[in-house]
Automatic annotation (TrEMBL), chains A, B:
UniProt keywords, alphabetically: Aminoacyl-tRNA synthetase, ATP-binding, Cytoplasm, Ligase, Nucleotide-binding, Protein biosynthesis
Enzyme Commission number: 6.1.1.21
Identification of the protein by name: Histidine--tRNA ligase
Subcellular location: Cytoplasm
The reaction(s) this protein catalyses: tRNA(His) + L-histidine + ATP = L-histidyl-tRNA(His) + AMP + diphosphate + H(+)
InterPro entries (UniProt xref): aa-tRNA-synth_II (IPR006195), aa-tRNA-synth_II/BPL/LPL (IPR045864), Anticodon-bd (IPR004154), Anticodon-bd_dom_sf (IPR036621), His-tRNA-ligase (IPR015807), HisRS-like_core (IPR041715), HisRS/HisZ (IPR004516)
Gene: hisS
Binding site for L-histidine: 77-79, 107, 121, 125, 270, 274-275
Species of provenance: Candidatus Methanofastidiosum methylothiophilum
Length: 434, 434
């Protein structure tokens, strides 16, 4: 017997039915924000990732040489592919573009709760707008899609910051090895305060600087109030610009009714190297799970990929943590399949069944029938397993009078109807599952 | 600038919108036949394919060693994965099962018209029934889904045969190296008659045998009539069983109204090693393209994979030839995106826009808005590019009277409406795209 690879998943129809409901809810929410779906290959040139994806992702690549001698890789994230498409087809596009996709991604990691080797990840991105309204759209979309799935502000917290703010703050402290400090801050939540401080000391930060950083990172709170606080505490052209943009985002999110979801949290930096401005993460309030998702601004990636300057903001949300969180809250859809009708047969009635099948399916009903030659009681058992709403019994005896028996499998109510009637006007007798 | 790998594709939103319509039509058709969607990984153990997929597929595998030292492969076809799932989870299932999936597949081939290195392939299979009605269901589903896409009997031909029929025929001629002959027959359409005959002579067939084979393979025609002809020409227990089953399939397909689509064609054998009985291929009538799809019975694969005996019948249809055929007939959907409403703004009206966006999206409208600070005329141009059905102009002056302007972008008709009205009851003013 063969096994599937560790960290990959199979989905039977009932499991798939639940997942399809979740994905279709997500797509609906995202499309309400004017995002359009795109699609890109599952395999790409290796160099697409070696440029800017960050060491962690490079270490986890499924990369190999193809039969033509090219180094290629299964995609570990979508952003590089999307930016590649954007750069190569920019001339066809009217900016800003709002794109989404739910790609299958692969990372060679140690499989654990909420982390798989093959997973799906919703990606949404706005390209071509530097305006804070683009940031607001992206964050609002994140919140709305979670609400549409059944979450509310008691479940989730959106923690927002801005890398430029942190950079300005560090410059104010006389610290210039910004990228090094950023990498340490990204690891902060996984280690003790003492270890964190030691790490900072290890890259030549002094005691005062370290304490100031620690204090700054802990200044988490109400988004708009925090921004006002920062605007009093820090001056200068650089920081004013960042504060102006963050204030606009905070104000709009409040106007849109998302105030209770959002927190200003300067400790959020995000691992990926390519972020340049606003960054955010979504967590469950109880912090039982790893980040549900994260995103932010990455205004320089198109240029790095050989294109024009195209500002960008977006996020990626994996399906594994989402499923864990939905199951915990009991909002994962019921895992069951459904059809409209099962046709059970008694005797040789194949001609009539053929006519029924063609007519009902041409009228868009989901219909199945016996293909095993089972007795009636076993056919009915099977119809129930398929989640059939109705059962149509086609028997030789009934057919002598031109009749068939229609049974509602929920109520058990049964009635004799004319075979020709249901063939010519199925909608008079049946309703559709969806 | 980065390029995508040869034989892979990117889809922009307008291209994707057309493809989504095609895929959703296919899913609908298939679900009307009671097939349920499943999902399996894009990567599998290499051995899953080395067993029974046939040399051609093995040569084209994207196979490599993963970081844990396992030989793995991108999936080149779905059937082995589905059978793996079936065998490993047979105890949870109520047979027969009818499954479908539209996996992304990878084969390292020379990219050409209708043949790509990465493509999608609809797979449908019925497991657990030996009954010819299962074969009929699968072939009917193939025909129905093509009709639902806009094809008719003048476009497509379903050529059906049975490997056992050919085997019995060869045994009657005293030929026992059945598999060798089968491989030659599979190549027959690509070479001249003379080369074909030479190939057969090369595996020690004599002149009479070769001519009889050639005559048999050319005995293409009306399905039911051909079967009746064969039933007169050939006797014996083995062949009677095959004829009985083919006659039932032919009769049912006629009863279902698909007579004009189907032909009996004994030259159809299908490349894959695992087929055991009925085999079929779908072609465009003009034979401009390679086979649109093929399938058949493969009753032994579950056993080969270490499971019980689970009879199976199904087919796989790739998206590349389908797209070529649809474009040739001008039934490929229009490549355009659409949204319900674009909100254009004049002046500082952000609070009002925020309220509108939240309300309209909560009411499931697809809404976009300006995030560029453009002037009105450029906002309207952009709205048209997004395929917006309506335009809502929110301007400071109108707002003084509590009004906004709603314009139908198709008719150009415009009316002043109350801001509070459209916020509280959007469905009174707008209709949805879908």
């Amino acid at each position: 017997m063969f096994e599937r690879l560790r960290g990959t998943r199979d989905f039977l129809p009932n499991e798939m039915a639940a997942r399809k409901k979740v994905f279709s809810s997500i797509k609906k929410s995202v499309e309400e924000f004017g995002f359009f779906e795109t699609d890109t290959p599952g395999i790409e040139l290796f160099e697409l990732y070696s440029i800017k994806s960050g060491e962690e992702i490079i270490d986890e690549l499924y990369a190999f040489e193809d039969k033509g001698g090219r180094m290629i890789s299964l995609r570990p994230e979508l952003t590089p592919s999307v930016v590649r498409v954007l750069v190569s087809r920019a001339k066809e596009l009217s900016f800003p573009v709002k794109w989404y996709s739910i790609p299958r991604l692969w990372r060679y990691e140690r499989p654990q709760s909420g982390r798989l080797r093959e997973f799906y990840q919703l990606n949404i991105d706005i390209f071509g707008s530097e305006d804070p309204r683009a940031d607001t759209e992206v964050i609002s979309c994140a919140i709305k899609l979670l609400c549409d799935l059944g979450f509310d502000e008691s479940d989730i917290e959106v923690r927002i910051s801005d890398r430029r703010m942190l950079q300005e703050f560090l410059l104010n402290l006389g610290i210039t090895n910004y990228q090094d400090v950023l990498k340490k801050i990204d690891k902060r939540e996984k280690i003790s305060e003492r270890d964190f401080k030691e790490m900072l000391a290890g890259i030549s930060l002094d005691h005062t600087q370290i304490n100031e950083i620690e204090e700054f990172l802990n200044s988490k709170g109400d988004f708009l109030k925090s921004i006002e606080g920062l605007s009093c505490a820090y001056q200068g052209e650089g920081i004013s610009k960042v504060i102006f943009s963050l204030r606009k985002i905070a104000q709009s999110l409040n106007d849109r009714g998302y105030e209770k979801f959002i927190t200003f949290d300067p400790s959020i930096v995000r691992g990926l190297d390519y972020y340049t401005g606003m960054v955010f993460e979504v967590h469950d309030r109880k912090r039982e799970f790893r980040a549900l998702f994260g995103g932010g601004r990455y205004d320089n990636l198109a240029e790095l990929f050989g294109g024009e300057h195209i500002p960008a903001v977006g996020f990626g949300m994996g399906d594994a943590v989402l499923e864990l969180m939905m199951r915990r809250k009991n909002i994962w859809p019921e895992e069951k399949v459904e059809i409209d009708l099962f046709i059970a047969t008694i005797g040789d009635v194949e001609k009539e069944v053929s006519k029924l099948l063609t007519s009902l399916r041409n009228n868009n009903f989901k219909v199945d029938c016996d293909i095993m030659g089972r007795n009636l009681s076993n056919q009915i058992k099977f119809a129930n397993k398929l989640g059939a709403k109705s059962l149509l019994i086609v028997g030789e005896r009934d057919l002598n009078e031109g009749n068939v028996t229609l049974r509602d499998l929920e109520s058990g109510k049964e009635s004799k109807i004319s075979l020709n009637g249901i063939i010519s006007e199925p909608s008079k007798y049946l309703t559709k599952v969806l």
